[in-house]
Design goal:
Length: about 375
């Protein structure tokens, strides 16, 4: 399936049906009175987050979604039928914004979350609606209200706990295949990965986190070199970035210069993304002689002036991967606990007297 993370669509809600002006006419009933029914409501357009979808490809080809109009009211007290709603299923993590103003309308972050994109018009009133003791033969009726119309931009940002960042052929796809259930394409040429891949890493029973692998970033991506910055948006919702560096590159390429170029491109794209927690992962240790590994790692960290966490791994042989997975899980779990504690603290009731006889309430004349 082709990966699509942007789409433009038009949504049109149905118009409400018109009200009817009618009178009951039967034999032996000379003053039957009004019996024109109201019009039916037009269909609305809803968006629903579906966890089984991971691309917006369905919206690349079908771009217009138009709900049906409500039925008109009829005589004999017959109200028009309401039209069916249209439900658009979108991947979790989709941002819906107005294509003309750019304003964000909603973000679908919870599976099953439902949001109204375009409201159907209400039905018009028939003359039955206007009858009263002083107006026994009303001839008024109202037309149905028009439905809303919008041109929307859909943008998908995958939901992941950890994002992999690095140059092409740094071993990101090999790493995500080694630690998760993802099976991306792996080859010995640059830009093997052409779209983001998600993998679930299972640490234990009920313990797991999601890793996102995006295409490699190269120097000059801000000017459109390589695949540009178009996939960096998928790292904006991650909690941790793993900067994967090839410690044994070919053609005498300086890995320190490559690492600095990646960080520079990251800062050009989004300073907030640059400020996210970032760990350094030195990959392909299996290609470095054992007696040279410590010296090469020490030299890289010194020249790169890195003061954060450093992990030495070989994604091919899975050396050091288990230690990396455990460290990531501890970091992600600590962030989840912090969020839960903060939510519980906000949900607690304010402290104060439990009964009118306690504290300051005992002196309040309202409780005497």
């Amino acid at each position: 399936m082709k990966f699509v993370d942007e789409a433009l669509i038009d949504v049109v809600a149905g118009n409400g049906g018109n009200g009817c002006a009618s009178f009951r006419r039967e034999k032996f009933i000379p003053f039957g009175g009004p019996d024109g029914g109201d019009g039916g409501r037009g269909g609305s357009v809803w968006a629903v987050a579906d966890r089984n979808l991971n691309t917006l490809v369905d919206f690349r080809f079908a771009r217009r979604y138009e709900a049906r109009n409500g039925e008109h009211g009829r005589g004999s007290d017959q109200y028009g039928a309401a039209a069916d709603d249209i439900v658009l299923r979108m991947p979790v993590g989709t941002i819906v914004s107005d294509a003309e103003t750019g304003a964000v309308i909603t973000e679908l972050l919870v599976p099953g979350e439902k949001f109204l994109l375009a409201k159907g018009g209400d039905g018009g009133f028939g003359n039955l609606h206007f009858k009263s003791s002083t107006n026994r033969a009303p001839r008024q009726k109202t037309p149905g209200w028009p439905g809303e119309q919008r041109k929307l931009r859909l943008e998908l940002r995958v939901l992941a706990d950890v994002g992999l960042l690095g140059m092409p052929n740094a071993g990101k796809s090999t790493l995500i295949a080694a630690i998760s259930n993802a099976r991306p394409k792996i080859a010995d040429y640059p830009f093997t990965t052409l779209h983001p891949n998600l993998g679930v890493v299972r640490v234990g029973v009920g313990q797991s986190f999601v890793v996102a692998d995006i295409p490699g970033l190269i120097e000059g991506a801000a000017e459109g070199a390589g695949l540009g910055h178009q996939f960096l948006r998928h790292l904006q919702r991650t909690r941790l970035l793993l900067h994967v560096v090839d410690l044994a590159p070919f053609d005498d390429v300086d890995p320190v210069a490559q690492a600095k170029a990646i960080v520079a491109e990251l800062k050009k794209y989004d300073p907030a993304l640059h400020d996210k927690p970032r760990w350094l992962v030195l990959n392909k240790l299996d290609m470095v002689p054992e007696d040279e590994r410590a010296a090469r790692v020490k030299e890289f960290v010194k020249r790169y002036r890195w003061k954060g966490p450093v992990f030495e791994i070989s994604a091919l042989t899975r050396e050091g991967c288990e230690h990396l997975v455990q460290a990531i899980w501890q970091h992600v779990a600590s962030l989840q606990e912090h969020v839960v504690e903060r939510d519980v603290r906000f949900d607690e009731e304010p402290s104060g007297p439990a009964s009118p006889g306690e504290g300051a309430a005992a002196d309040d004349p309202r409780f005497r």
